[in-house]
User: Fold this.
Amino acid sequence: MKIGMSHGAGGEVMSTLINETIINNLSKKSVNGGIGLDALDDGATIPIGDYEIVITTDGHTINPLFFPGGDIGRISAAGTINDVAVMGAKPLAITNAMIIKEGFNIDNLDKIMKSMDETCQEADVAVIAGDTKVMEQDKIDEIVVVTTGIGIVEKGKAIKDSGLEVGDKIIISGSIGDHGMSLMSFREGFGFDTDLKSDVAPVWGIVEKALEVGGVTAMKDPTRGGLANAINEMANKANVGILLQDNAIPVKKEVKAVSDMLGIDPYEVANEGKVLMGVKPDLADETLNAIKQDKYGKEAAIIGEVTNDNHVLIETPVGGQRILEAPIADPVPRVC
Assistant:
């Protein structure tokens, strides 16, 4: 068996590769009793004194490098910052390693670095270390970027993606499918007359406002595999069910139009500036109102609740229900 594109696209195929081939071959996967690799959360923690250092790492092979709403520099910074943020930690810094193809345009590299810097400034994050390598033209894509994020949280207050409890409300911080569908339509040159663009953005402002209310039980950013993959992973880890309301999930009309034309479920498409969270029911409305105060949270909505069922279900506008399964892989590859 050989590696295929689906092995890096989120969903069940990637999960099997990570569990059977990567994790099973590693001996020590956590430090000082912190959250480790085998938790398969958005990041890991290292307890030190009264705090926990949160660390995450991410590789980016997006195609194309520049797209409506962002570029590989913005997505590399935001994606890593967001993985730290949804652990409940304040992002502090990232490192940046780049593997660049021989002949790459230096002006484009300059644009990428400026974009990365602007994104970091939004979240008050520093770029504190890095590495640069150049490879022969036939060996790699134009540029591959690998970023590592570092954050801090009080000991015992890190938010896991496995913390859902029956009765919790499910909140999404904004419309879904924007990143994957905008990039797909741009990449394939469909020429839609639309303002659709990627949602790529740092979400620490949203997370910080939600945490101040005090009712968050679980968080995840629905990147590869989209809402469908993230919500199923959260439910499976917590051993709970979830009932979502189809008409409550925000989807832009442009995303729906592109999705319908291509036969792609927007619930399975990557997002790069959204937070999916479980919130205690008595604090859900307050949390929603707090999130809406952030510039990236104005479309936030309560989209369902946690049940004692064994499935993730969606209730349709006519009252029927269907199972929302985790995708085999993200239907739009090379978007993050």
Remarks:
- The mean pLDDT is 93.
- The CA atoms of residues 226 and 268 lie 4 Å apart.
